[in-house]
Give the backbone structure.
Amino acid sequence: MLLAVTALTLAGPGSPPAVAGPDRPAAGAYEVRATGPCSGKLARRIAFRTGELRVYQSRRYACAVTYAKSPGKRRPMALSIQVHGGRPVVDRGRYTRQAGPRTVHALNRCVRASGSVAGYGASTGWILC
């Protein structure tokens, strides 16, 4: 008990407690959170009338997913991601929630992505250059 009080006192009133627990990592550790079906950081998010297109970037790869704004019934969805100088990688079909994820190797290369849900869509243009 004395150790916990000392740790709280050293941490200060404005900072989170430095005591590890089942839902809190140990001091000095970091917590890894899932960002979705793609690894890496969110590079671009484009909303459109019936959904949104998200492009994620890691060091070597770019990944894209198209999400429906209101998931539930099946509707036509499409996703395309292309590296500059390469062929597009496409996922097209009738889905309830999302099209993708699709990943391309994009180390030091520009990427463009487009997505659509039920006839409405968006495109990024060339990004991550």
